[in-house]
Each structure stands twice: as structure tokens, then as C-alpha cells.
Amino acid sequence: MSGKQYALDAYVLDTLMRDLVGHDRRTSAFLVYLSLYASSEAGFARISHAQLAERTGLSKRSAQDAVSHLIDRGLLRAEKSGATEVTRYQLLSPWRRPAG
Questions:
Q1: pLDDT tens across 14-29, in order?
Q2: What is the pLDDT of residue 9?
């Protein structure tokens, strides 16, 4: 058993889970969001679709579709510096509004 602990924003479990799983019918997107969250450092994660698939138990295609859905929903931004580079993901939290 891993000694890691994660602190999730309450919004992720109270609202986002219900929205992605219940409303959008995209359980895979919620699993991918959680996996990216767990893999991230300072809000960024470098991970391949194959690694996401293995970590979540999804097929590679399902992981790709989930990533696309998260990008479309404004929950994720993806950057790739070259054709052979692993994608760098930025997890977005649009429910957090900057103060001021």
C-alpha cells in the first residue's frame, strides 16, 4: 500500500464527479482527471495515453477520448513540444475564481 496522500478540492468530489459521471456519462473522464491530478506536480503532469490507460484500467482509446472531453470542458490543457514528445497536461480549476 502506498504512503501517498492526496488533498482534493471539495468541488472535485461534490460537483465535478456528479457532473462528469452523471450528467456527461463520462466516468472515464473523471478517472483520467483523478489520475492526472495524482500524477501532477504544481498542476502539471507529463504522461502518455498508454500510461493513463494502464493507471486507470481504461483502454488507450478510452483514455484519449476522456482527455479530449476534459479539454473540451475546460478542465485540462495539453501541450506537446514535438511529435515524439510526451504530452504535458495542465489541470485547470475553472471553479476557482481569482480574488479581486
A1: 898 999 999 889 999 9
A2: 85
Q: Residue 88 phi/psi, 5° resolution? A: -105, 120
Domains of the chain: 10-91 (1.10.10.10)
As beta bridge partners, residue 77 has 90
CA-based nearest residue to 29, from 75, 95, 80: 75
Burial of 48-78, coded b for 16+ CB within 10 Å and e otherwise, reads ebebbbebbebeeebbbbbbebbeebebbee
The whole-number pLDDT of residue 100 equals 54
